[in-house]
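Give me the fold.
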Amino acid sequence: MPVEGHHRTEGRVAGRAGRRRLQGGAELGVAELLARVQREAAPVAARTPDRARPAPPRRVPEPPSPRRSPETAPPPRGGGLPARPGVPGAVDPAGVADRPVGRAKAIGSTGGPGPAGEVDVPRPVRGEHRALTERQQVVGRWLAGAFSAATALAVIGSVAGERVIFGDPDLTGGATAGAAPPLPAIGPPTPGPLVALPAETPDEQKEDAELPGRTDCADRPGQVLDLVNWKLTLPTGSSSSPAEVEGQRLKSFSSADWFNVRKDCAVAFRAPVNGVTTSGSKNPRSELREMSRGGTGKASWSSTSGTHTMVVKEAFTKLPTGKPHLVGAQIHDAEDDVTVFRLEGSKLWVTNGDETHHALATSNYVLGTPFEAKFVVSGGQTRAYYNGRLVTTIAKDYTGAYFKAGAYTQANCENAAPCESGNYGETLVYDLKVTHKP
């Protein structure tokens, strides 16, 4: 944030990596210098507006004293480096005299050779000079006002990872070219007034509750997701008759292996390749099926009547070896699946019935990356969105429809190995919302 200072100046800087040795033998690292500047400048910056204040008017240099000839007069105060070699009073750091000369404006100066406000300075060798950033100029102006222009040049040059070369003995008190005056002792900043922050809104509190990495999560999936109108199918049970959990029992249900809450407050769904399957599928699942009437009835709606939406915030975290395919969300009708979000390796597809590779949502999905999958169905049109972007629109009339979400592993012991519970597909669901409008 810009702050107001009493003086502004510009010095040449020549690059040198690593630490910078200051006059007096004290050696400070870039990080320590920056920390010291920020500690002192922060209270001042906090009390100033975001936009830079108007610079003070240029000072008109005093004419040379009659007792002095132009050849013996010192350079004007506030100027940058003196003119090219051969100009009386110039300080010529080693090697600078041999460089080509260019025109540059000296901030805060109205004197020197050339048009008012400009001086002739050697052009830097590529890789040895860079212009000060806005932040460095801001801190420099503040340091110049609080201490001295020389101190500002020393600190800013050191923090920038470069060495300040002074060309104005009148500012530096005769400092040798290439050296910097010792830094003044900077004490702790004066604390500013305490500012009462407004309380978080309910929406902000909800957003905080959904942030990954929290450790105060609920113990049960039913405390993280609204599972009132859902039924859970697990990869356990007897052949062709997997275990199911629904109604009030689902609110407090948790399974350490297949359905639980993780430390990032997401609900984990896991289905192994050797899990129990339903009678109509060869593949196992740990998946939610949409219900109605508080979980007592099965959801059944039409693509041609009303608007039906499901939004799932989830992440694929594990794919089965042998056949790395996994479904995270889908629409099913009275007979078969209509469309699903299906991950195959790093490619996330949106299917259309039996057309597995109907539309590509992304070709470089990275396991563990949260994303938003959304289905919107109305007027015989089924729209699929990936992170808010429309992936495809499927024109199809169907009835007896319902949403599904979780982990539906597209592999089994016939096409994936090893055939064991440690070979599984897994998703994390952070949020799940379904709406139906007439």
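The longest helix spans residues 30-46.
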